[in-house]
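Lab channel / #folding
Pinned by the channel admin:
"Please post every new chain as: sequence first, then the structure tokens as a reply. Keep commentary short and put observations after the output so the thread stays searchable."

First post following the new format, from NK:
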Amino acid sequence: MNQTIRQLLDTADLLLTDTGEPATSTAATASRCRGAAFALRVALESAVADRLTAHRAPRAIREGTQRAAFLWLRGCAEAGAARRAKAVWSQLCLGCHYHQYEIGPTEDQVRAWHAEVAAVIALLAH
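Reply from TO:
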């Protein structure tokens, strides 16, 4: 795992850490959770890019859409790892998008995504 990925995972941890402040607003908590989801998504995308680079994927795949990268990943990683990476990435994308009618991801959701992203990154590093 490269330093950038580690820093992104640490940033997500910091955003999910209880500040100890009394009665933080729902909006502030939702913003922290969404920010953590963004950090996790970028960490996962970086790990996928590293794996594609290591397997000499074409530049168009490495620098193209994430959908193309995840399709190519199936040939560069174990099937289970590629499936897990795509699944958690899809969930993170939903959690990152802001909609006026949704509060956003909960802390529990983001913590579960964090655990899954860390596990997938470890699988992709091998």
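NK: The radius of gyration is 15 Å.
TO: also worth noting, The helical segments are 3-16, 26-54, 59-62, 66-73, 79-96, 107-125.
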